[in-house]
Amino acid sequence: MTQTTAESPVRKQRAQLKMRTLRTDRWWLAPALVFAGLMAFLIYGFWAIFDKSYFVAPYHAPFASPCLATSCPPEARLFGLAPFGDWYTLPPGILILGLPAGFRLTCYYYRKAYYRAFWLSPPACAVGEPHKKYTGETRFPLIFQNIHRYFFYLAVVIATVLSYDAVLSFRDKDGNWGHLGLGTIILVVNAVLIWLYTLGCHSCRHITAGRLNHFSKHPLRYRAWTFVSKLNAKHQQFAWASLFSVMIADFYVRLVAKGIINFPFA
């Protein structure tokens, strides 16, 4: 470690190692799996944006919900509204996916995940990296990671909409309540995982009681902070579980809408 003295100013470069690593385990496996998982999500999301089979009563694909234009099927519109009117003719996913995608992109856990998997900064603990300088998140474009707290509020809106869609999935095609299909179960499980991931966010933990000096004076906020802290301890697990659950739910709805899956409990 370089010591700082009057004659030796602080170095702004990373420590350079002569060897890439002395590790003998398969350290590359974790970043490789993260790279594969996130790439699968990106590829699927890009395909889902342009796929038009996103709704079949009573199921609404999460990647296209809410639908806010008149080009959407009337049953798919949120509360029957179409605030974007006739002028918007692009796929609904383009409007929606930016909100949850921005939340995940700026998430504290996902930053660590894709910094290692995509930018190799660093690829793993005690492993050398190709970057000579390190500026953290103080410069463009990484300085925009600081807007994560604002994406949290938008993510709460999306989680609420997905929960609403899950409730509507208990209706049959005629609008009668009491339907319980495989799609209903999948949408409900997805909504629950989305909430567990969203509420376990570090920003949510800070909002609930991050600035309190005396928990005893704010018992309700302390209880909320305790609950969120428990979720935060498993934020990584919920991040991956909800990532795959939303893809599975979305893909399942599209398969039903295309008529590929068509059986009594669909």
TrEMBL record:
Keywords: Membrane, Transmembrane, Transmembrane helix. The keyword Transmembrane applies. This is Integral membrane protein. It comes from the Bacteria. The chain crosses the membrane at residues 27-50, 87-110, 150-171, 177-197, 238-257.
